[in-house]
Design a protein that fits this description.
With 482 residues, the chain is mainly α. The protein contains 19 helices and no strands. The C terminus is likely disordered.
Length: 482
């Protein structure tokens, strides 16, 4: 039977501080992940000079989405094992340092390879941090109902991270010209090249990822370790974590199904929703606003400067609208996470709980991307709110579910395999799938083809996730075996 403590944790100052810092941590995780959809277009145009929709452009979009996720998945799995081996709090602290430094460095990228390497380190830090934080919270609040509430509501702040990055990007787009110029000293430039546009908005957006990490770096090292992990470690009864053990007969089905379903949840986000900033420019209203911006920027200017000014005006207009649509999507995600936090306590069956979000998603995803995203901006704003609601809520589901189906000595390892191999490694592969099938030689048609492709991918992963949910083990069954 389970020997972990089960009583309620008193909500004193320390407990509230733990919840607050965890909320900031979850928000920062999503902040870092959602930066790329907002900056990938302008960054590749500067670093590669590639046209959106071209083979070179889409190849690098796929690489920037998938290679960092692959690195995060592999090293995140190692981080999960380290979390079980050396403690939750220690690994949390190191993970924050990794992605804070790499996020700052990414803003100084002088080549696409430097940007790729920095994003890999960002993903490694984020992937480790999520798993360690979920295990930490689950053990600091062992009471079942209290645990569900704490995990549900702290994870809801992940969507606040989406608002933060959308807001930060919009401010960077609006005021980049007034910010200090960015220059990288030669002795630090290991990748060659130069910063072509020292006032590029995408650079400041990447650098802004350092800001939310500051309170985490200074406060988290002083918060308590998981009591149950620390007690077993001190008593010498903590079993050594083993990757093979999560595939033992008792846990094999849990590991396989959760990994595949986690991949489907991430597949919907990376294969469809995160491509919205590059779909938006194809909408009629967005094209009209870009045209107005170009006319205003080039009026009375010499012909030699008009092409450059037109490109800058178009990019700025498109980025501003994309940031606005991203805020709406994150609003839907935020509501989805809070609704999930309420339902998680009321609905016992985890299969029924996740289907509340999966079944409507089968209908919503193809409509939003194949119809709304190619027709009207206002329709897309409504549709992406609903798509964000249904998809993002599933991420909170996994944060609540996984700590309940693995024993303490395997909690980090088991969570990490599902989250990092399933979600980060397999799930984010759908970003590459979408961009690969969306390649076109017609730049004007690129956003529309991308929308149609995203519709197909979104429907496919939702259908796969729904079918797999019928084999998902109920946590109380595993808890009785523990």
């Amino acid at each position: 039977m389970n020997s972990e403590p089960t009583g309620k944790t008193e909500m004193n100052l320390t407990a509230w501080l733990v919840c607050s810092i965890s909320s900031i941590g979850f928000a920062f995780d999503i902040y870092q992940l959602l930066i790329l959809p907002l900056v990938v277009g302008p960054s590749l145009q500067e670093l590669l000079g590639a046209a959106p929709g071209s083979d070179l452009f889409n190849t690098w979009v796929g690489r920037l989405f998938y290679i960092p996720a692959f690195a995060g998945g592999i090293f995140g799995l190692l981080g999960g094992w380290l979390t079980d081996r050396f403690g939750r709090r220690r690994i949390l602290t190191y993970s924050i340092l990794i992605y804070a430094v790499s996020a700052f460095a990414a803003g100084y990228s002088t080549s696409v390879w430097m940007l790729l390497v920095c994003r890999c380190f960002v993903f490694v830090g984020v992937c480790v941090e999520f798993v360690a934080a979920v295990a930490w919270l689950a053990e600091l609040f062992p009471d079942k109902e209290q645990k569900e509430k704490v995990l549900g509501y702290t994870q809801a702040f992940s969507s606040i991270g989406g608002f933060m990055v959308a807001w930060a990007n919009s401010k960077c787009v609006a005021y980049a010209g007034t910010f200090p110029a960015l220059h990288l000293p030669d002795w630090l430039n290991l990748f060659g090249g130069a910063i072509k546009d020292p006032h590029a908005a995408w650079r400041y957006t990447l650098i802004s990822g350092l800001i939310p990490a500051i309170p985490l770096i200074f406060i988290r090292p002083f918060l308590p370790e998981s009591p149950s992990w620390a007690q077993k470690k001190a008593a010498g009864t903590l079993r050594r974590p083993s990757l093979a053990e999560i595939f033992s007969p008792e846990l094999r089905r849990t590991t396989i199904i959760t990994t595949l379903m986690f991949a489907c949840s991430y597949g919907a986000a990376f294969g469809a929703i995160q491509h919205i900033p590059r779909i938006v420019p194809g909408l009629p209203e967005v094209k009209a606003k870009a045209k107005e911006a170009v006319e205003a920027a080039t009026a009375g200017k010499p012909d030699a400067d008009k092409k450059k000014l037109a490109a800058q005006a178009t990019g700025k207009s498109n980025q501003a609208i994309a940031a606005h649509v991203t805020k709406i999507q994150e609003a839907g995600g935020l509501l989805g996470r809070f609704i999930f936090a309420i339902l998680a306590v009321k609905i016992v069956s985890r299969q029924k709980l996740i289907r509340i979000f999966q079944i409507p998603g089968l209908i919503v995803m193809p409509i939003v991307f194949a119809w709304f995203a190619t027709s009207h901006l206002s329709w897309l704003e409504t549709g992406i709110f609903v798509a964000g609601f249904l998809t993002v809520a599933q991420f909170s589901f996994w944060g609540n579910y996984l700590p309940r189906v693995y024993p303490l000595h395997l909690r980090g390892t088991g969570e990490s395999f599902a989250a990092n191999i399933g979600g980060r490694l397999i799930g984010t592969l759908f970003a590459w799938v979408t961009t690969t099938f969306a390649v076109t030689n017609n730049p004007a048609f690129a956003p529309t083809k991308l929308a149609y492709t995203a519709a197909g991918v979104g429907f496919a992963v939702y259908l796969a996730g729904l079918l797999l949910s019928f084999a998902l083990p109920e946590p109380h069954i595993q808890e009785q075996k523990d």
